[in-house]
Amino acid sequence: MHKEPVSYLLKKVPHITGRGALDKVWNFSSGYSKVFVLTDENTEKNCLPLLLGRIPHPGSVGILRILSGESNKNIETVVSVWDQLTRMEADRKALLINLGGGVITDLGGFAAATYKRGIDFINIPTTLLGQVDAAIGSKTGVDFQKYKNHVGLFADPKAVIIDPLFLDTLPEKHLRSGMAEVIKYALIMDKPLWERLKGKSYSALLQDVSAITKMSVKDKITVVRKDKHESGLRKILNFGHTAGHALETFLMSSDSPATHGEAVAAGMICAARISTKQTGLPAEDAREIYHTIDGIFERLCFTESDIPVLLHLMRQDKKNQKGELRFTLLKKTGEAVPDIAVSEETVREVLQSYLNNQ
To answer: According to the model, what pLDDT value does residue 33 have?
Structure first.
């Protein structure tokens, strides 16, 4: 027997997490003129039957389809969702359920929030990355001209349903990807979580995935509750993402594209090294971070000649101010400081160190 799922309240948005959370979906889905579910080819096959089995009259549910992958997280795909909703005569009292990973919940939330000036939506993240990060916090949006999350808005879902049941459907690569965001929470704010993670193998972490998911969800909600619009505290959640987003974008069209988690893992190694130079992170703590991340993720492949392109991509990061690259860095494990200006020379040095497996 599993325990009852836990409910966290973020403003007026309930987040139901734990085994059995999916059973609560109809509590938030009844009373609408029609219910639609946004899927991609993977979630339609592996996850949609699990959801429809918990909805009365599943034959009345409208299924919307997009293609999976970050390369499809763009305004053209949003137009496709608007078109499908229009053709199926969705009105302003309709509900959209976003069933998938971060691409689905980001893009689906944006499409719902703008369709007919806004319809309700529910996020049901089906990846570990989505469950601990992307689906929480009311950020929606799409990539634009290869810049990550360049266009979007804040929009609250009606609910977020986080059930580890879906993790059983994931390919290993995508399940592993989510561990990067778990590590991020540990490093920026949750020392007990870091003690639970450090030095552990990926297989050992999988045995503990339900508990670490709940800890991560609570961490994200704690931050967003205090700073929804990223005016201060929420910026700590960007740890690893300045270099990570640049690497993810750069490698997207290569023969070896990186998942979001793989890119953030690389970004955290870089940010930890910068932290030893600028915010006093002890070298011993940094080495422990490198060791833990390298035990879960392989180093990404790029060359020294690619570094100028990566720096160009970083200059487009939304966190930058007055032409300065801004990073979230660590004072120590469990304590982060946002908005630190970092010179391009320093970033170049740490990228070179990353290449040299340092």
So the answer is: 97
The whole model's pTM is what? Answer: 0.92
Burial class (CB in 10 A: 0-12, 13-18, 19+), 37: buried
Q: Tens digits of per-residue pLDDT, 112-154?
A: 999 999 999 999 999 999 999 999 999 999 999 988 999 999 9
Helix (H, G, I), strand (E, B) or coil at 280: coil
Query: Is-contact 166 105, C-beta < 8 A?
Result: no
326: nearest Cα among 337, 310, 342, 312: 342
Q: What is the pLDDT of residue 321?
A: 82
Question: Could you tell me if 126 and 100 are in contact, meaning their C-beta atoms sit under 8 angstroms apart?
Answer: yes
Closest CA to 60 of 110, 95, 21: 95
Q: Cα–Cα distance between 74 and 76 in angstroms, integer?
A: 5
In the DSSP assignment, the letter for residue 255 is: S
Judged by DSSP in three states, 267 sits in helix
**Burial letters for 120-131: b for 16+ Cβ neighbours within 10 Å, e otherwise?**
bbbbbbbbbbbb
Q: Which of 3, 29, 31 is nearest to 17 (CA)?
A: 3
Sign of CA pseudo-dihedral 317, 321, 324, 326: negative
Q: What is the pLDDT of residues 308-341, one digit of tens each?
A: 999 999 998 888 887 899 999 999 999 999 999 9
Cα–Cα distance measured from residue 131 to residue 136, given in angstroms and rounded to the nearest whole number:
8
